[in-house]
Design goal:
The chain has 268 residues and is of the alpha+beta class. The protein is built from 6 helices and 8 strands. The chain folds into 2 domains: 127 residues, no CATH class; 112 residues. Helix 1 runs parallel beside helix 3. The relative contact order is 0.11. Keywords: Signal.
Length: 268
């Protein structure tokens, strides 16, 4: 029986090696196919972009068009689109609408849309176009006085002209808060052997068009049970900070609006 077992083993090993070689060959073929497909896609995109850029330059000689870009794959629509269309028409500018690029490497006409917008801004002045956009937001706000703008890609809120960190305390807002904050006696600092995460408080504010706080809300994430009793103290100190802080208003399309903001206070 042993010779047969030996032959069976040799046969099995040969099949296994053949399967491995076949899989490697298929994998290499797939990689090569993807490489060729990517090169062809890039070549196609480059050709289309070149054609659309030439068309944009030609069209810009006889008309002005303006587009707004939104992020792929599901960007936020520009809310005052109808108002902007009406305002642009008064200045003989065609509202092209919103355009979205491809997040999978496809071509969606972005070269035409972006260049056409750039040429319009260059000929008429970017500041002039920006003012028209602001007017459209102002008109939208007049029609929707109760609208509270939350965060989307067309809105902007900064603290002392800077952006915030939403992962740690290394931003100006946290630095300002803790410059006057005293931890209560008995507070236990973050310990990685006891806590999985650092404790924090998420602060949500509704600001009016001048940055005045209309409403506040707190969501506490205290990951050390011993420190839960200090939540009222944290809230008192945060409210004090809010009271004496001058906040910038939320801006939508560059225009100050009533809006909702949020930031986190990270405890040690």
């Amino acid at each position: 029986m042993r010779p047969y077992l030996f032959l069976f083993f040799v046969f099995f090993q040969s099949c296994f090696l053949y399967a491995q070689e076949s899989m490697t060959s298929n994998s290499d073929s797939l990689k090569e196919f993807r490489k060729i497909a990517l090169a062809e896609r890039r070549s196609y995109n480059k050709k289309r972009c070149s054609e659309d850029s030439i068309r944009a330059v030609r069209d810009s000689e006889i008309q002005h068009k303006y587009y707004i870009n939104i992020a792929a794959p599901s960007g936020d629509k520009f809310l005052p689109a109808e108002e902007l269309k009406m305002i642009l028409q008064k200045h003989n500018i065609i509202w092209g609408g919103e355009w979205m690029g491809s997040d999978i490497g496809g071509y969606s006409g972005e070269c035409y849309y972006s260049l056409m917008t750039e040429l319009t801004e260059k000929k008429l002045g970017k500041d002039f176009i920006d003012e028209l956009v602001k007017k459209s937001v102002a008109l939208y706000v007049q029609k929707h006085p109760g609208k509270i703008f939350d965060y989307d890609e067309h809105s902007e809120w900064t603290y002392k002209k800077g952006s915030l960190s939403y992962t740690d305390d290394n931003d100006q807002l946290n630095k300002d808060f803790f410059s006057h904050f005293i931890y209560p006696e008995g507070y236990e600092n973050y310990n990685s052997s006891v806590q999985k995460y650092r404790s924090s408080t998420l602060v949500t504010l509704i600001l009016d068009t001048k940055g005045i706080v209309l409403k506040n809300q707190f969501s506490h994430h205290i990951f050390h049970d011993h420190n839960l009793k200090y939540i009222p103290y944290f809230e008192k100190e945060i409210k004090k900070f809010i009271k004496y802080t001058k906040f910038e208003p939320v801006k939508y399309g560059g225009y100050p609006v009533k809006g909702e903001i949020s930031f986190s206070i990270y405890y040690k």
